[in-house]
Amino acid sequence: MSVRILALVGSLRAGSHNRQLAEAAAKHAPEGAVIELFEGLAEVPFYNEDIDVEGGVPAAAARLREVAAQADAFLLFSPEYNGTMPAVLKNAIDWLSRPYGAGAVSGKPVAVVGTAFGQYGGVWAQDDARKSVGIAGAVVLEDVKLSIPGSLTRFADTHPADDTEVVTALTDVVGKVRSAASVAA
Hints:
This protein has six helices and five strands, in the order βαβαβαβαβαα. Helix 1 links the parallel strand 1 and strand 2. The longest helix is centred in the last third of the chain and has 21 residues.
């Protein structure tokens, strides 16, 4: 039986290197792991308790929760915007944290990885995402990290799926997420 890992990409840009990183993870996922890239984070409205009511949850947020509920684990891909994670990723975490104590991420393994232009590859943003998703109830895999610096130059002519070093690191990350999900099941 394969472990279903839902990938949430914190960049909405069409040519996003983090999206490409997620695509590479899906393409090179080790046996026993299936990665699904969630499409539609841009349509999920900002979290607001006034609209998070039975029968009134916006369709895009309800779809995010439904897809996330079917996942065994999560892999978050975060660039760094002004020293932290993008609002779209934080918003997804907020929707998935509710209802409090029983959200779609509760008790499920999560790893956070990513790439950014700076010399540290988005470490601050990824640390903030780990903190937020952990508070939301996920089991954060603190020792599973991958921050790739210099994204604009590193991936200028090469897709991450064609970068041997990146593929090796991603395969290791996905393998650890798969193992954590198997233990949790």
